[in-house]
Amino acid sequence: MSCGYEFDAVYGHTYAITVMRGWGSTWTGDVVDTLSGKATHIGSWALPSGSGNLRPSQGGFVEYYSSPPNCSQLQWVNVVFGGPTSTDAGGRSGSARAQYEYGNCTGQGNYKSAQVGTGTNISRGWVR
């Protein structure tokens, strides 16, 4: 399964993804531009009953929805996924870790990852 949501992001701005529990097993997600304060709703979903709460880790990923005909033509991306934080349960925090490269250009995509505090910096691609 894959999902995506397009919105007008500003290069160089930091965005916070907020997830909040709605009613029962329903959750909602927003992305917030931390410079302007503008929030954009990116989705809502329901989990099976008994799924429980969020965990103190996250799995961010970078995915190309439209691959170029040649791996040397991958658009360069650079993103930092920060560790998750919470305003509930005493303000808990967690970590994000870079795991691996996947997809059609595995091993050919100029993939790099490094831990940055409780988060991870991922870059991939060639064309700037």
Q: Strand order across the biggest sheet?
A: 1-2-3
CA-based gyration radius: 16 Å
Shape: globular
The counted number of beta strands is: 8
Q: Number of folding domains? A: 2
Q: How would you classify the helix and strand content by structural class?
A: mainly beta
Oligomer: single chain
Give the overall average pLDDT: 85
Q: Count of helices?
A: 0
Give the biggest beta sheet. Answer: 3 strands, antiparallel
Poorly predicted runs of 5 or more residues: none
Strand content: 25-35%
How do the helices and strands follow one another from N- to C-terminus?
A: EEEEEEEE
- In percent, how helical is the residue content? under 10%
Question: Main traits of this protein?
Answer:
34% strand; mainly beta; 128 residues; single chain
Characterization of this structure:
The protein has a three-stranded antiparallel beta sheet with strand order 1-2-3, with no helix packed on it. It has two domains: 14-47, no CATH class; 56-128, no CATH class. The protein is globular and about 45 Å long. Strand 2 and strand 3 form a beta hairpin. The chain has strands spanning 15-21, 26-33, 39-46, 57-58, 77-81, 95-96, 112-116, 119-124. The two termini are 29 Å apart. Helix content is 0%, strand content 34%. The chain has no helices and eight strands. The chain is mostly beta strands. The model has no long low-confidence stretch (mean pLDDT 85).
